[in-house]
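thought: fold this chain, then report.
action: predict
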Amino acid sequence: MLQEFRNCWRKTLQIVIYSGSNCYWDVPKSVPYIVFCNELIKENFYKLNLSPELRIVDSSELTLLKQTAITNVLERNYEQQDQAFADLVEAFSSDRDDSRIIQTVEALYEFTRSHPFPQKWLDEKAAMYQHIEQVADTPWGQTLLFYAQEAVHYCITLTKHALELMKQDAKLLETYENTYQSDLAELNHLKDAGTWSVGRSGKSGRECDLCTIAVTAGIQ
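observation:
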């Protein structure tokens, strides 16, 4: 869908956008060679069959055009009822609207613009999610496990600290020590396992207890 959005936006912004007698061009004003190209195009607009009113689009117009482009892409995909698109919406949208998926696509689009070959970069990253046999062998799986381990270490530290504080109150120690000691033992088990499938009930994949700990601890 991102590529479709990119194509739609390119057609809308980067080629030519006519609105009455005006013609807009989306380029970053701060880049000197872009300014030079803009002047070159203005001087030779008749050779390129462009409007003499060609100008660089301002930020407010650009925001509106972005929203229009991605809204059109989303509506078209909703009409097609494609399962892959439905899965994408399920993963990235909230229950109320499509604001989260719109923000995600826009952020990814802006990020890819920092690369000299955006489409090549996107293709390479998409290929990383194909033909997956073991989640832990993937770069993103390894990243998840790393942060999950960090979360587990953090939880162990908090639990040990809580146990130390309990020693200052005999009643608290008597009431909660066993529970906290049990939690500490489970956390140490997770830390020592350090694999994708380490749950007590044999969970794996998205249900990995280690990753659940990471989410619970607030690792983003």
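thought: worth noting. The chain is about 65% helix and 5% strand.
final: tokens above.
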